[in-house]
Structures are given as structure tokens and as C-alpha cells.
Design brief:
The chain is built from three helices and 13 strands; from the N terminus they run αββββββββββααβββ. The longest helix has 18 residues, at about 1-20. About 30% of the residues are buried. It has an eight-stranded antiparallel barrel with strand order 1-5-6-9-10-11-12-13. Strands 3-4-7-8 form a four-stranded antiparallel sheet, covered by helices on one side. By secondary structure, the chain is of the alpha+beta class. It has helices spanning about 1-20, 160-170, 185-195; strands spanning about 25-30, 30-35, 40-45, 50-55, 60-70, 80-90, 90-95, 100, 115-135, 140-155, 200-215, 220-230, 245-254. It starts with a helix and ends with a strand.
């Protein structure tokens, strides 16, 4: 009888240990549906009938994927680190009168040849788990939490009218001639090279986070859903600095 009790307690201890994972690593779908790359249009060079103009379409919302790692072993708080890659494509057209040229890029992805905006957002977050379900039991399945932290953002420039006008102005030896019939094609090549050569923009920002994790006892697999609000982050001209990201994923939790 005593041996049976010892075995039962041992199994219970193992179950509790597995239900409260102290370490997790996984992947997530991470869209930013509210972020907007604003559209723009205007003259790049010349005037009147010979003026060369640019029209850049807007894109609302970015798609993305990422990774996440967390540590739940600390008292009162949890520590989480994650990184998401997010992107969106848009159309850019250079025109002179009835002659127009749509910009294309060789991105190495079949059927994808448009200019695009992309960013990598890396977060470190301190979380407070304020609710565990079921409550008042040693083995909880769902943990609800909220917190805040620092964000590091790396982003591409946007090929908008402001960027394009500066690129054309610098291309003094590119052969751009507002009176030439093939000028839109020449300007398009200048802009493609300019955005390819442009460096990435980076900076530090902040974020707020709320979400929940669920883990069934014994099984070392967890699922999670988070909402992050990023603010005061470094963004290029034409992109909202404040944005919401949703994270939905799964992880191995030990």
C-alpha cells in the first residue's frame, strides 16, 4: 500500500512538472493587418507635357511569420523573446504622358516581381501571468498574461515619390532626358537600382503585449495567441510607426 502511494505521488509530481513548462520554443503566424504603407504620387523631373511622374500604390496590412522563446521559471514574471519578419507588396508606375513603365524586381520568388516593404521586429518582453485556468488548482492548462518590453526594428525604405525624386536627382550620369521617348524606362531602372542599393533603416521602440498560452499536462506541446502593439518604432517615410501585430502559433514546451 505504501509503495502504491509513493508511485502515485511520483506520477503526480511528473504531471505537475510537465504541465508547468519552464521553457518553450516555437513558431508563429504574425500578420500586422492595421499597418499601412501610404500611397504617393507626383512629379520626379521636368514639367508640362514632358514631366515624368510616379504613382505608388498603398498597401494595407502586412503578412508575416516568426519565432518565439520564453522562460517561465522565474517567480511572478515570465520572460519572452521573439522575432517576426513581415512584408507587403505594392505597385509603382513611372509615366510621361501616355508612355508608362511599371517597376519590376527580380526577387527570386516565382510570380512575385513587385516592389515591397519588409521589416524584422525583434522583441524582448516581461510578462505578468495574472490568470491561470482552471483557477486554484496545482495543474493549470491556460495562462493569461500581459506585459511590455523593448523592440528592435529593421526595415526597408519605401519607393515613394519622395524617395524617387531624390534618387532621380542624384542620377546625374544616368542619361535621364525628359524629352526622350524612352525616359520612363530609364527612370524605372534608376529607381530599381536606387532601392536595391539603399541601406536598411533600424531603431529601437517599445511594445505592449497581451495573450494566452495553453498546454495540456504531460504532452510537451503548447499553443499561444498574442496581441502586440508597437509604438515609437523606427519606420521609414510613408509607413505608420505605430502598429498592431497578432501572433498565433505553437511550441515545444518542457
Amino acid at each position: 500500500m505504501k509503495a502504491a502511494w509513493i508511485k502515485s505521488l511520483a506520477l503526480a509530481a511528473v504531471a505537475v512538472g510537465y504541465s508547468h513548462a519552464i521553457f518553450g520554443i516555437g513558431g508563429q503566424w504574425a500578420p500586422a493587418p492595421g499597418l499601412e504603407v501610404k500611397g504617393s504620387s507626383g512629379t520626379l523631373v521636368g514639367s508640362g507635357a514632358n514631366a515624368i511622374t510616379l504613382s505608388q500604390a498603398k498597401v494595407s496590412g502586412l503578412n508575416g511569420f516568426g519565432v518565439k522563446l520564453w522562460i517561465d521559471a522565474l517567480p511572478l514574471i515570465d520572460i519572452e523573446a521573439g522575432s517576426n519578419v513581415q512584408w507587403g507588396l505594392y505597385d509603382v508606375t513611372v509615366a510621361q504622358g501616355n508612355n508608362s513603365q511599371k517597376l519590376t524586381f527580380d526577387l527570386g520568388v516565382p510570380t512575385v516581381d513587385k516592389p515591397g516593404f519588409a521589416r524584422i521586429v525583434s522583441d524582448v518582453t516581461v510578462l505578468y501571468p495574472f490568470l491561470k485556468l482552471p483557477p486554484l488548482v496545482p495543474v493549470s492548462i491556460v495562462k493569461v498574461y500581459a506585459g511590455a518590453g523593448l523592440s528592435h526594428v529593421i526595415a526597408t525604405e519605401v519607393l515613394n515619390q519622395k524617395f524617387a525624386a531624390k534618387a532621380v536627382d542624384k542620377a546625374t550620369n544616368s542619361g535621364v532626358d525628359p524629352s526622350a521617348a524612352d525616359t520612363p524606362d530609364k527612370v524605372a531602372k534608376v529607381l530599381v537600382n536606387a532601392i536595391k542599393d539603399e541601406g536598411l533603416k533600424s531603431g529601437i521602440g517599445f511594445h505592449l503585449e497581451a495573450g494566452a498560452k495553453a498546454k495540456i499536462p504531460i504532452i510537451p506541446i503548447a499553443v499561444f495567441a498574442d496581441i502586440k502593439y508597437h509604438f515609437l518604432s523606427a519606420m521609414p517615410s510613408g509607413v505608420d510607426a505605430n502598429s498592431m501585430t497578432f501572433e498565433l502559433g505553437g511550441a515545444l514546451a518542457f
